[in-house]
Amino acid sequence: MIARSIKAKVLVFAVFFIGILTGVLIANFYTTRVMTSSPDTASPPDRNQRAQRDINKFYDYLGLDQNQREQMHKIGEETRQQFRDLRQETKPRFEAIQEESRSKIRAVLNDEQRTKYDEFRRKMDERRRNRNRNTNKNDRDPNLEPGQRPN
User: Fold this and answer.
1) With a cut of 70, which residues of the chain have pLDDT below it?
2) CA distances from 83 to 10, 40, 76, 117 (A)
3) For the chain, what are the domain ranges?
4) What is the pLDDT of residue 36?
């Protein structure tokens, strides 16, 4: 009777341990394989290739001929340029609102909190700049000087 009780406890412990081990292995697999191959972390050429492949699949799905594909591509380029122009138009207003908000937040904080907040904002802004720099490398005109914006 006691031997059965011990066997049952060992079995429950073994199942519990195997469950934990399986969870750790799945989490490790997910972070090393799935997260590193996601579109967000892909290099810009891979992302552009994927996007073009998806566009071609969409064109195939619609059954577009070459002329229609060219027209769709032209519409996409025009739209993309309009969005870039809109972004450039609204960027100053967005930045002004953002700066006003940050000033209001800083006014609420004490000196120590303000220092931490400023450090946090600096890191986040740097991370955003790096992400945008990596994302927009292919959108840049090679004839522009560094820091110069397209018209």
Assistant:
1) 1, 34-45, 135-151
2) 63, 21, 11, 32
3) 65-135
4) 57
Among residues 27, 132, 117, the alpha carbon closest in space to that of 84 is found at 132
Listed residue (44, 55, 74) closest to 138, CA to CA: 44
**Three-state SS annotation for the chain:** CHHHHHHHHHHHHHHHHHHHHHHHHHHHHHHHHHHHHCCCCCCHHHHHHHHHHHHHHHHHHHCCCHHHHHHHHHHHHHHHHHHHHHHHHHHHHHHHHHHHHHHHHHHHCCHHHHHHHHHHHHHHHHHHHHHHHHHHHHHCCCCCCCCCCCC
pTM to 2 decimals? 0.46
pLDDT at 109: 94
